[in-house]
Fold this protein.
Amino acid sequence: QQLFNDIDLTWRQRNADSDMRFVFRDSYTTDLERSEKSKNRLSALYFDYKSLTGGYTARLGRQSPTGGGVMGRFDGVSASYLLRPKLKLGAVAGIPTDKYFESRRKFYGMSIDADGVLPNFGAGLYAIQQNIDGEVDRRALGLEMRYFNGGASVFSQFDYDLKIKGLNIATVQGTLVMDDM
């Protein structure tokens, strides 16, 4: 028998110049038969700042990836700057939250995204490096593409690892929402 406890708190303040947000999401599972099996999972704890007039954003804390070759939830910083309408430069650095034995892991990367250059289409290029215990674990160049049109959406990612000299990820996922018949 288990008891699930979840909390999801968001604070937001928006004005003509900025949009600020603080997010806290946590889940605690109580094992009623074996208390040593109870566990806590902090899924989000971050502060997000968006300048509505300066074209930049920054997020600091525990967060989920939003592209750029990041593979999972992490503690760190992500930031972007709008170079011109529809063209954004991004950077990310952090430590993955999922444990991998007793290793020390970290990553950092850069990306450039273009949205709406073609109707309903967006794409991004990224470079990312992950280290584990001081050694390069992944050094990749990648391409992410997005397509939206009405009820259809398609996401794809192609990730080439320079360290292993091979394709690391090739994925295409889509959704089609149809009208009621």
In short: The chain has a mean pLDDT of 93. Residues 78 and 168 are 23 Å apart (CA to CA). The first strand starts at residue 2 and ends at 14. The chain is about 0% helix and 70% strand.
